[in-house]
User: What shape does this take?
Amino acid sequence: MAKLIFYRQKRYDGVIHTGIELDDETISEISEGGGAERDPTLLWYVDLRCEGPGIPAEADSAVLWLREHSKILREGFARFAERLRIGADPDVYSLTWNDFQSVPEGVSLEIACSAVRRIDARAMATILQEIGDHWDEILRSLHVPQAIEDVR
Assistant: This one.
């Protein structure tokens, strides 16, 4: 049973790190921004966790699966963002949401997010909305390297 995770996280040094893992193996990731001082400590993170026999086991097929189900996933980010519109308190435990519409057969979907500071936790709805609004663009920026495909 394949496990596919899309993640986006912001670090203390301002770097926004985005990637995709398939069965605990990173298949693509990018980093944007950041300052002169390197500090990989996370301020917040968002995970889209997809699991089940309906998830493809090959990296390129898994990324294609995310693209093919963009509408459901974008709507999920928007609906979770609406739930958190007022904000959320920071907590060591993730906030999770799995009330997706029309989930593909053989797949479970869940969005998890967390923030360590109150100001970041209050902005979580905006962060989720931005991920959903820019979903296709974000996926296009995550190229699956051929070397990963050759190893798998």
